[in-house]
Write a sequence for this structure.
């Protein structure tokens, strides 16, 4: 059986990990073992937080819709219920965008929803 020298493979793997941890502090971007730990944690946090971002944005949209709805004399829950009853199919992202960028259009939607509900 021939002898296998692994120096090139190991160095390539180490360099890949070290380059991915550029920007981490201290030994976390210089020492392979610390860098590998740091990279594994960073990737786990990134995966988890990609899911959490969706929850965060939904909360933000609801806050914005609620604030704009209260300017029109109703609350978020009453507005959403009225939208459902009047079959206005518009999602929270679009409603929040309208509330911020085009308040008259948001007001028109609120009036329509409350009138037909």
């Amino acid at each position: 059986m021939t002898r296998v020298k692994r120096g090139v493979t190991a160095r390539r793997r180490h360099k890949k990990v070290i380059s991915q941890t550029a920007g981490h502090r201290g030994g976390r971007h210089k020492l392979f073992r610390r860098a590998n730990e740091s990279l594994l944690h960073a990737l786990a946090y990134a995966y988890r937080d990609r899911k959490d971002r969706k929850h965060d944005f939904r909360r933000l949209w609801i806050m914005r819709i609620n604030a704009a709805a209260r300017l029109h004399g109703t609350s978020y829950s009453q507005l959403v219920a009225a939208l459902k009853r009047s079959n206005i199919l518009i999602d929270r992202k679009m409603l929040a965008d309208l509330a911020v960028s085009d308040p008259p259009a948001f007001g028109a939607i609120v009036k329509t929803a409350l009138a037909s509900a």
